[in-house]
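Page 42, continued from yesterday. The earlier attempt failed because a stray header line got pasted into the input along with the sequence. Redoing it now with the clean sequence only.
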Amino acid sequence: MSSFSDYTENLTLNFLFTANSATRPTAWYVALFTGAPSDPGGGTELSGNSYARVSTTFTVSGTSPTTATNAAAAEFATATGSNWGTITHLALFDASTSGNMLAWAPLTTSKVIDVGDVLRIPAGDLDITLT
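This time it went through. Structure tokens are written below.
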């Protein structure tokens, strides 16, 4: 992931540097985008044609850098109806719909998803690194 969202940055700073309550996410969902999101949110998330965010879990390991990585493969449903288009970015949310964007990044290589295609992110291929 290349960037934490503004929501995550605020959550982190409140947790670390104030006595304010900060409720951490308890679920994580991978979302696909054809238009770039940014720290405040936005972007063009896919919709329709059997698209839905996919839940994932993470393991955290290492030091300098410490990396969170997806513990299991994240597999999206088969694209139906019409093509999903060119996936350029992904983001993590704390809900299967709506919710708060936690982090986002461009894909290393954009991926065209046509009718009948299935997008899979193998275990260990979705990394969030803090250095």
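Notes: The chain has a mean pLDDT of 94.
Reminder to self: strip header lines before submitting.
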